[in-house]
């Protein structure tokens, strides 16, 4: 399967479907405000259902049955295709390449890895390399900046790099503590 270019909401829905067959209401429950995923990255119920429609259109998930709802109509149950599951696993292991995406994309990947009971160590290691490359590029631009405002902007972006690095350190420490408790 070629590399997918999906919005984050669709990646989240696809990753949750890759965990096992499910219906939109169950996914929306996980992505609701103050829920497992939604507490950190909220995906509204309409967006979940729109994502399901798009994922079906792209043949990444397929209907596998229906389930009676407590109230209302039956709920269509979907499952991720085998190639979609492989693609999700690959996506979850790839570091984000833009500093701005650390807050949303990386955080969601870490949450989804935790749901799979999968160590984030490899992703964190790869993300550190990318963060180092971003820092090197920003430092070169800061040094070459010709005016005070440009230097200040690069200094601000470098603070984001340091914050991302502290975040990775905190996740790495937490992952090590979990491994020690379960190991």
Structural class: mainly alpha
Give the strand line-up of the largest sheet: 1-3-2
**Mean of pLDDT:** 91
Beta-strand segment tally: 3
H/E series: HEHHEEHHHH
Q: Using only CA atoms, what is the Rg? A: 19 Å
Distance between the termini: 35 Å
Q: How many helix segments?
A: 7
User: Per the principal axes of the C-alpha atoms, what is the gross shape?
Assistant: elongated
Tell me the layout of helices and strands.
Blueprint: H1 8-19, E1 22-23, H2 24-31, H3 45-57, E2 61-67, E3 75-80, H4 82-93, H5 105-115, H6 121-144, H7 148-182
Antiparallel strand pairs: 1-3, 2-3
Helix pairs in contact: 1-3, 1-4, 1-5, 2-3, 6-7
Commentary on this structure:
This protein has 183 residues and is mostly helical. Helices cover 63% and strands 8% of the residues. The chain has a three-stranded antiparallel sheet. A hairpin with a 7-residue loop joins strand 2 (61-67) and strand 3 (75-80). Helix 1 packs across helix 3 (45-57). It starts with 7 loop residues before the first helix and ends with a helix.
């Amino acid at each position: 399967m070629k590399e997918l270019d999906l919005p984050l909401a669709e990646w989240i829905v696809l990753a949750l479907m890759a965990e096992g067959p499910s219906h939109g209401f169950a996914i929306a429950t996980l992505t609701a405000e103050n829920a497992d995923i939604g507490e950190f990255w909220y995906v509204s119920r309409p967006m979940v259902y729109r994502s399901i429609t798009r994922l079906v259109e792209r043949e990444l998930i397929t209907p596998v049955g229906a389930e009676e709802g407590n109230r209302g109509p039956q709920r269509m149950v979907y499952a991720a295709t085998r190639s979609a599951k492989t693609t999700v696993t690959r996506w979850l292991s790839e570091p984000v390449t833009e500093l701005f995406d650390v807050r949303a994309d990386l955080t969601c990947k870490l949450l989804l890895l935790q749901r799979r009971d999968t160590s984030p160590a490899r992703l964190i290691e790869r993300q550190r390399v990318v963060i180092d490359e971003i820092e090197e590029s920003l430092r070169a631009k800061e040094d070459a900046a010709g005016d005070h405002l440009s230097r200040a902007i690069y200094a601000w972006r470098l603070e984001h790099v340091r914050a991302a690095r502290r975040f990775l350190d905190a996740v790495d420490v937490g992952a090590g503590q979990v491994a020690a408790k379960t190991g």
